[in-house]
Amino acid sequence: MGLSIPQHVAVIMDGNGRWAKSRQLPRIAGHQQGVLAVRECISAAISQKVKFLTLFGFSAENWKRPVGEIKELMGLLGFYLQHERQLLQEKDIQFRVIGQRDRLTPEIMEQVDILEDVTKNNKKLQLTLALSYGSRQEIVQAIQQIVEQRLQYPSITHPMIDEHMVSQFLWTSGIPDPDLIIRTSGEKRLSNFLLWQSAYAELIFLDVLWPDFSKDDFIKAIHTFQQRQRRYGMINEMES
Description:
Undecaprenyl pyrophosphate synthetase, alpha/beta, 8 helices, globular
């Protein structure tokens, strides 16, 4: 029997550069086309009644890219944040950013803060954009905050550190763990994305480059997910 729709889908949007190179276009053209794929993905998530959608937009490691490309990416991001506000409101989408927010420019952070504030009461879909995000960095920061809390209040009896506590200190606090992670471009790795949260996620790797990603690709991934059995370490009744 098929599974229900995943509550949380996360997507590693990969292949913009290769898409542009295959067409002898500058890399920024791939990123621009990728924005259209983001809209396709959001539309598909809403149509399938997914409640949480997380998109890996810019990794902590991406800061190592050429300065010119980073500048172009940040410019495109700023344009998107400013011009998609009406669409997010019309579609009742709540917007959120996770990652090393302090590494983003003041101009980008201003747009992020505005968008998070004006969409905070929207209910249909929570769209989370991972910017300057790295899962190892996220876990390290969570541990640091737990330690700092205990050093700051040594007289308080602190509960034992467990999985639930760690999750509360992650940037994704308040967001359920992903049920499904999709990666485009044919690469088969997580690339430091939601390592803690993806412990029991189903992984689907698509050969399509991100700018070519369509609503149909999203729906097909959902159908593949529905054919899988999530055991969480337990034995299926059919096998016992």
